[in-house]
Every structure is written in C-alpha cells, then in structure tokens.
Amino acid sequence: MDGKFETTPCPLCSEDDHVLKYNFSPYRVVQCTHCGLHYVSPRLTEEAMLEFYRSGDYYGDDSEIGYSAYQQQEKSLRQTFRAVLRRLQKQGFTGGDLLELGCGWGYFLDEATPYYRSRTGTDYSQVAVEKASASGAEVIKGGLAELHPDTLFDSIVLIQVLEHIYDPVPFLETARTKLRPGGNITVVVPDWNTPFRWLLGKKWPAFKHPEHVCYYTNNTLGQALDRAGFTGSKTITYNHAFPLSMYLDLFGLKVPEWLGQVSVWIPFSCAARVAWT
Ligand SMILES: [Zn+2]
Q: Across residues 97-120, what is the average pLDDT?
C-alpha cells in the first residue's frame, strides 16, 4: 500500500506530550502523559485508511492486513455476541431500535434479532454490506454520515470499531446525537491492560497496523465517553470466545483441525462499557 504518514497529538485530550511504548517502524505506539491514552503516531493518514476499508479487501483472506480468517471465527464470534446480548438484556439495555456501526458480516446483527424492535448496520466495505444484509437488518454502506439525518435509535453498538477511529470524541459525540433520550451505547475495544499483551508483547493480536490507531483501557474508554457528553457509563463483562487453533497459533502450537474448531472463552481480552444519554 502506498502509505502517507502523519504524526498526531493525543486523539483523546489533544495534548502532545507522550512516551514511546512500542516501535513498529514506521508506526509507533505512544502513551499520552496527560490522559493516559495509548495511540499510534506516526500513523497512516485517515484518507489513505478509508480508501483501504472501501476497497473490499479488508475482510479477505489474501490481504496482509484486515480480518484474515474472519469467517473461520464465525462460530466463536456468534457465541461471544449471544453472551453479551444476554448480558445487555438483563441490564435493560436492549429492546428498541438498534444501530451497529462497523457491522462486518452481520453476525451481531443476526444474533440481535430477538432482542430489538429493528436493526440497522453500517460498514464501509461493500462485501460486508452484502453479507450483513442476509441478517435481515437494514445495512447501509458507509458510517454515521450516511445515516438519514432524522433517524434516531435506542441503542448503538460499536464492537472492535473505536480503536480504528482517528478522532474518537467527535465520533462518539455524533453517535450520541443519533440516540433518543434515554438511549445507550455499548463500546467494545481490545483492552490495553489485558494479560495477553504482557504475555505476547509485540505479537499481541490487537497490534494491527495501520488500522488500529488508538488503544484503550477501561479508564481511557470511560474518559472518551465522558468527553463525548454521555451522562454516565459503566463497565460490562465481555468474555470473548476464540477458536482454539487461533489461540494456540499465537504460541506457535498446532492441533488437529477438529480440535482447533473448539471455542475457548478468553476473559480480559476486551474492555467494554455501556454509556447512556
Ligand atoms: Zn491524552
């Protein structure tokens, strides 16, 4: 990919004092000394990144970056989503009109069918829009800007999306304006504080460059939601199922294919918060 690179002040608090944490030349992961956010600087420009998301290669197996083996994770992802939907329902956060931003192939939208009155998804990839439409949800190509300006929702879900967003506070502010009074947003990101980052170092799977530009903890995710004007937020448990093969690959271990398909529940891999208007 023809890269165009830029350096940036902190995407969360706009200060420009940081310390280097990891060097993935030409990308560097730094930590803001003011708010504590970890972010990538230098990074690919947003224009170059959006061009890549629109290209349709993002979900393909032949791409060096993007969701390789995304399909192979389908079973585990669906289990993960069913568990979080049950949890959201128990806490009273389901039931109305749902919007999922960055819906991928629509596994969450599909699993969400019994939990919401209506379901809408967005994704920049045409392939994703076509696949996700099979869930019966309305799926729009693009993002927040492509939604009809008068359409409001009761719940917004962002799963593994915010870490891709260059300006998270204005993004979350705009999302908030799409919620009815009393509405809620669920945000799930890779957790910077996961023990897997300590174990795996630079092989931590959430280190995906150029597409991940911010890395959150529960604390910095809460700060982002506060700055975006949400009234309050709280953490929710988000255990993630992975195929055993994917987990063992990280440690260079192989198992027979039938065994590799077994789902393993991994706690502490994601930070998740629900915020309300
Ligand atoms: Zn900061």
A: 97
Q: Find the domain containing 266 and state its range.
A: 64-276
How far is ligand 1, taken at its centre, from the CA of residue 31, in Å? 8
Q: Are 21 and 30 in contact (CB under 8 A)?
A: yes
- In angstroms, what is the span from residue 261 Cα to ligand 1's centroid? 40
What is the average pLDDT across 25-39?
97
Domain with residue 213: its CATH number is: 3.40.50.150
Give me ligand 1 centre to Cα 230, in Å.
19
Return the minimum-mean-pLDDT range out of 122-136, 152-166, 218-232, 249-263. Answer: 249-263
Identify whether 40 is part of a domain: no
Q: Is residue 51 part of a domain?
A: no
Structure tokens belonging to residue 156: 């917004």
The pLDDT of 80-107, averaged and rounded, is 97
Please count the structural domains in the chain.
1
- DSSP H helices in 69-167: 74-90, 107-111, 126-133
- How far, in Å, CA of 111 to CA of 210, rounded? 30
Whole-model pTM: value is 0.92
Q: Is pLDDT of 240 > 80?
A: yes
Q: Which residues contact 68 (CB under 8 A, 6 or more apart)?
A: 60, 61
